[in-house]
Amino acid sequence: MIFLGVTVNAQTIDKAAYFRVWQGFQKPELTSEQFLNELPSFMKNTVDLYQERALNNYIVVIPPTNRPAFIPDELALVTLHSKEIYEAIRATPEGQKYSARHWDVFNKSNSKSAAFIDYSKVNPEELIHNTAYDVIGNQINWARGFNAVFIGIKKSELSSAQFLHKLQSHIELAKSTMQPKGLLGYIIIANDNYEIAYLNWESKHAHDIAVQDAGGQAVFADAKQFMDVLMYEEAAPSQAGQTVAPGRAYSTLQR
């Protein structure tokens, strides 16, 4: 298949080179029940629009109900073949209809994708508030292996600057410790008040061994020094359109 002059097939979509890191807050007119009932339809719309031409995987996260108000009601990592194809799709009539569809579900005033920086190339001295980073920077297949999602909340005694400084140190520790043990993908959102991390492992077996050994325990101990853990869950394989629930994560194109 050729789209915008680029040949797109299963092989090209097997690796993601472009990411959208969405943070969505519930539309005020909706109740929590209505919001959760509406999300599966929106998720299906996302997969239907992108799957054949650009989509590598679509990981959706519904944080627990006990989250602070500053934590989004829904999060998503959209891993795509290329920015070029993504923008071409969004410019089509069906893409514009999909863009407008967001506001049936989400609050337009504060829901958006985070700015994205390739951390492995930029490696900033200090993380920037509400910015997403590709910590490892390799093009991988996010539909393979084992996906997990972590949400950590800044401890109240820390300033935002202290939190972001400690978070960068933690990211470096996690990368150096976990990457040799099978961590393939590591995308985060660094916020003044929280961190969200999407992690792709070569297998569940590799993940389980890595988090249980001394190095993995040291990484979790370091995180708990400056964050309270809100959520650490597998992004379980699930078809878009199925029901969703708080405290769960879904990998809609897991293969």
Structure characterization notes:
The protein is of the alpha+beta class and 255 residues long. It has one domain (2-251): Alpha-Beta Plaits, CATH 3.30.70.100. It has eight helices and 13 strands. It has helices spanning 10-13, 32-50, 83-91, 93-101, 119-122, 160-178, 204-212, 214-226, and strands at 2-3, 6-7, 18-24, 55-62, 74-80, 112-113, 115-117, 131-134, 146-154, 183-190, 194-201, 227-237, 248-251. The strands form two sheets. It has an eleven-stranded mixed sheet. A two-stranded antiparallel ribbon has the order 1-2. The protein is globular, with a radius of gyration of 18 Å. It starts with a strand and ends with a strand. The model is unreliable at 1-12 (pLDDT under 50).
What would you call the shape? globular
Give the biggest beta sheet. 11 strands, mixed
Distance between the terminal alpha carbons, to the nearest Å?
21 Å
The chain-level structural class is alpha+beta
Strand content: 25-35%
Query: For this structure, what is the CATH class?
Result: Alpha Beta
The whole-number mean of residue pLDDT values reads 93
Rg (C-alpha, Å): 18 Å
According to CATH, the fold-level topology is Alpha-Beta Plaits
For the biggest β-sheet, the strand order reads 6-3-5-4-13-12-9-11-10-8-7
Unreliable stretches: 1-12
- What helical percentage do the residues reach? 25-40%
- The second-level CATH architecture is 2-Layer Sandwich
Q: Total number of helical segments? A: 8
**Count of individual beta strands:** 13
